[in-house]
């Protein structure tokens, strides 16, 4: 089955939820992890916080308004002419201003928009990380299950060989050496079984903790299965795609733009500012004031322009500009380093998948050869041209090959996902395509 065929996400989700509760698909568990994993929830909360922080930058170019009110009581007294009076003053002021020309504020506003892009890239990176962590835990459980299955099968085979050696010794056709060798191999397999059981228990616990479900049973991989090569087959195409899709490169590129805008803000320290100001003021004196002894009210409306031109700030602006230019160079260098790192990671992941496919084919051939060798050694043991240790070694080699082959298949599947993570194109649909290779229970 072609791994690169696009399976609609909705259909894959429907298939995932249609299986019994104790047989979850990879995509099903990923959706569970999105709702439960604390690391993902932290990244999502940080993303929301970054969006709101970015929105704050727009305040610098929007109008602002204030309302102020006051109440005071004054005791007024004069000696000539003799007068004494107490009066109250009630004041209210409504003021507003609109920036007309503030280069620093407009640069900060543009930085806010870049912060949104940065937050989105960070969330995508967190999503990729969650998909890989779920996939790794999923295939770790399958690999541990396979190892335990193979060890138990080997234990049965060794037990049969031990029983055969004992029977042959009793009838005098073999020596005690065959029995002791079979017993030693059987004891070794028992120890391996205990270790495999514990490893499976730990791997299951890790997966359960990640997805927030107890006793998760992953769907096993359908065998035999066709593990396709990466598409496109050219590693340079994957590297080129990373330039536009990699969250790491997008973050580094956005950081360069933010640094450039920071330089614009620093340069604005030499530039004037111009604001439109509007105010309306009301003063009420119910008992009069110092000039008038009766009720009076004064209303004042003002419209104006506020202009400010910086002249000298103790060389702070010049040094700030030098600082931001240096930080801009640093951001450019970080971008180039990120590009190189992503390219290297993408190439490494690509060649890892290709190498893994070759390893799978080699192990499949080795499995067939090991099975033939075991059959030949068993037959030779029965006719007396082979000894018991030859059969035991053939059994060990066969089950070791089976275990390595299963692990190699999982590594190839996980390698496909890591390749897409490296170049930034990993999507939930890729997990859905993996589901097509699993045994439906």
Topology:
Elements: H1 9-18, H2 26-36, H3 38-56, E1 64-79, E2 82-101, H4 103-171, H5 176-211, H6 235-245, H7 247-267, E3 273-285, E4 296-308, H8 316-383, H9 388-423, H10 428-435
Antiparallel strand pairs: 1-2, 2-3, 3-4
Helix pairs in contact: 1-10, 2-4, 3-4, 4-5, 4-7, 4-9, 6-8, 7-8, 8-9
Task: Describe the protein in words.
- With 441 residues, the protein is α+β, with helices and mostly antiparallel strands.
- It has one domain: Outer membrane efflux proteins (OEP), CATH 1.20.1600.
- It is 66% helix and 14% strand.
- It contains 10 helices and 4 strands; from the N terminus they run H-H-H-E-E-H-H-H-H-E-E-H-H-H.
- It has a 4-stranded antiparallel β-sheet, with no helix packed on it.
- A hairpin with a 2-residue loop joins strand 1 (64-79) and strand 2 (82-101).
- The two termini are 18 Å apart.
- The model is unreliable at 1-21 (pLDDT under 50).
Distance between the termini: 18 Å
Helix and strand content put the structural class at alpha+beta
Count of domains:
1
The helix content is: 55-70%
Mean pLDDT: 87
Overall morphology: elongated
Put the structure in a nutshell.
This protein is α+β, with helices and mostly antiparallel strands. It has ten helices and four strands, in the order H-H-H-E-E-H-H-H-H-E-E-H-H-H. The protein has a single domain (about 10-60, about 105-270, about 315-435), classed as Outer membrane efflux proteins (OEP).
Keywords:
Outer membrane efflux proteins (OEP); disordered N terminus; 441 residues; alpha+beta; single chain; 4-stranded antiparallel β-sheet
């Amino acid at each position: 089955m072609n791994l690169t065929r696009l399976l609609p996400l909705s259909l894959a989700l429907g298939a995932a939820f249609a299986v019994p509760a104790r047989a979850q698909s990879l995509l099903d568990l990923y959706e569970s992890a999105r709702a439960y994993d604390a690391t993902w929830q932290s990244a999502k909360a940080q993303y929301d916080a970054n969006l709101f922080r970015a929105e704050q930058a727009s305040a610098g170019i929007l109008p602002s308004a204030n309302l102020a009110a006051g109440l005071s009581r004054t005791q007024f007294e004069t000696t000539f002419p003799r007068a004494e009076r107490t009066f109250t003053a009630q004041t209210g002021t409504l003021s507003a201003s609109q920036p007309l020309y503030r280069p620093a504020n407009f640069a900060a506003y543009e930085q806010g928009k870049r912060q949104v892009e940065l937050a989105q890239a960070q969330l995508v990176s967190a999503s990729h990380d969650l998909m890989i962590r779920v996939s790794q835990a999923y295939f770790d459980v399958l690999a541990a299950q396979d190892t335990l299955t193979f060890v138990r099968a080997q234990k049965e085979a060794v037990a049969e060989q031990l029983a055969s050696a004992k029977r042959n010794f009793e009838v005098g056709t073999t020596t005690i050496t065959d029995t002791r060798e079979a017993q030693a191999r059987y004891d070794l397999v028992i120890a391996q079984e205990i270790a495999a059981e514990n490893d499976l228990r730990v791997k299951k616990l890790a997966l359960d903790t990640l997805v927030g479900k107890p006793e998760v049973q992953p769907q096993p991989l359908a065998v035999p299965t066709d593990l396709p090569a990466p598409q496109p087959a050219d590693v340079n195409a994957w590297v080129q795609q990373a330039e536009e899709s990699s969250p790491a490169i997008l973050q580094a590129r956005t950081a360069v733009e933010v640094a450039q805008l920071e330089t614009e803000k620093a340069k604005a320290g030499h530039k004037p500012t111009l604001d439109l100001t509007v105010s309306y003021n009301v003063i009420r004196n119910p008992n009069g004031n110092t000039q008038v002894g009766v009720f009076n009210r004064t209303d004042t409306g003002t419209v104006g322009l506020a202009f400010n031109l910086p002249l000298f700030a103790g060389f702070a602006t010049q040094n700030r500009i030098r600082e931001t230019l240096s930080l801009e160079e640093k951001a450019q260098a970080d971008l180039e380093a990120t590009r190189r790192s992503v390219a290297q990671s993408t190439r490494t992941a690509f060649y890892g998948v290709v190498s893994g496919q070759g390893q799978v084919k080699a192990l499949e051939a080795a499995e067939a050869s090991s099975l033939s060798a075991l059959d030949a050694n068993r037959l030779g043991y029965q006719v007396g041209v082979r000894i018991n240790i030859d059969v035991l070694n053939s059994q060990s080699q066969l089950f070791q090959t089976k275990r390595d082959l299963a692990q190699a298949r999982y590594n190839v599947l996980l390698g496909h996902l890591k390749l897409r993570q490296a170049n930034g194109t990993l999507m939930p649909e890729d997990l859905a395509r993996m589901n097509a290779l699993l045994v439906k229970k």
